[in-house]
Amino acid sequence: MAPSEPIYLDNHATTRVDPRVVEAMLPWFTEAYGNAGSVGHAYGHAAREAVEQARETIAGAIGARPGEIVFTSGATESNNLAIRGVAERPRRRGDHLVSVVTEHAAVLEPLERLARGTHRLSLLSVEPHTSSQAGVVDPQQAAETIDSDTCLVSVMLANNEIGVIQPLAPLASAAHAVGALLHTDATQAVGKLPIDVEALGVDLMSFSAHKLYGPKGVGALYVRGRDPIVRLAPLVVGGGQERGRRSGTHNVPGIVGFARAVELCTQTLEEERRHLRTLRDRLLAGLVAQIPDLRMCGPDPATTARLEGNLNVWIPQVDGETIMLAAPQVAMSSGAACSSADPEPSHVLRALGLSADEARCTLRLGVGRFNTMAQIEQAIEAIGDAVHRLRKG
Ligand SMILES: Cc1ncc(COP(=O)(O)O)c(C=O)c1O
């Protein structure tokens, strides 16, 4: 990175593609450019083999079997396929959907759309910001809400704004006790936490390459293939790719890059978690030293219920957007970048009990693989200076 480029601390929005991922992808654009659906020649065979190899790598990394991975264009599509695929499948059971107020829009919107038509939707609340477990769902409340009419429970594994990690196992038990399925949006968790779909007890899991140092525009949905077999109504029909679950020509370079990115994350998972925790903890300590009235949003970082790379802070009386303008040398976010077209304060922070004005006075800082301690020190100084200038002025 050139010295004049801003320090990138927006790794929840997207991540830089790892150069090793780019290297793995390149031949699939220029040399081996066949369509994985072309069965009659070597170009097609090579592409098909690459897609199947990638499927195996990705399945292996999350404790799944290759046939349980459906490639999509990203987590938004995976979430839509999971939710609408269950709700709209023939012979579905029940019309009750259960989720959480702090989910990503790519989960909430398809749920709300169904709730305006054929389904009933219950949204669970989360622990308030005064709690050390801020943002965590209460499994007891979930168990009381899930009923014999529930067909799907959708709870994200790790939150994209406050990094809270949800306890999925008790939610899986409550869902399965009534014959409902559990979907998780694990977009911020895969590649960042050890993941085993069996241990989590999930039936459907969405994730995306660009959050784990892979390319944009490719993702996957894990669809349980046994005990029970989960059947989905497809969203996209046509050529019958992905065993009819998602038609459309495979994005071969993207899928190859996705698998390489997952492989790299798996190889260095614990080392990287330690690196991110060290940087994140220093960032927090440095900001607190500069801005003593700064408060954390979300769970206490000392607990295991928070992503190592995540920080979200509330700086009383200073608007997050204004800090971003005053500290352009740091690329950060004042809410979820995915919903930055929406001027409303973050629904996640509001769900923790922050007022609209308080929620506007926040910064989300996402530390990633390519950040260094020197960058963290510069970011502390830049944000601290900006806040002091704004408070004086
Ligand atoms: C939790 C979560 N779910 C879903 C998405 C959407 O992912 P994609 O950009 O792959 O569609 C995002 C990304 O912004 C996210 O953070």
TrEMBL record:
Catalyzes the removal of elemental sulfur atoms from cysteine to produce alanine. Seems to participate in the biosynthesis of the nitrogenase metalloclusters by providing the inorganic sulfur required for the Fe-S core formation. Signal peptide: none annotated. It catalyses: (sulfur carrier)-H + L-cysteine = (sulfur carrier)-SH + L-alanine. Residues 7-378 form the Aminotransferase class V domain. It is an enzyme of class 2 (transferase). Keywords: Iron, Iron-sulfur, Metal-binding, Pyridoxal phosphate, Transferase. Its EC number is 2.8.1.7. This is cysteine desulfurase. Its cofactor is pyridoxal 5'-phosphate. Belongs to the class-V pyridoxal-phosphate-dependent aminotransferase family. NifS/IscS subfamily. It comes from Botrimarina hoheduenensis. The gene is iscS_2.
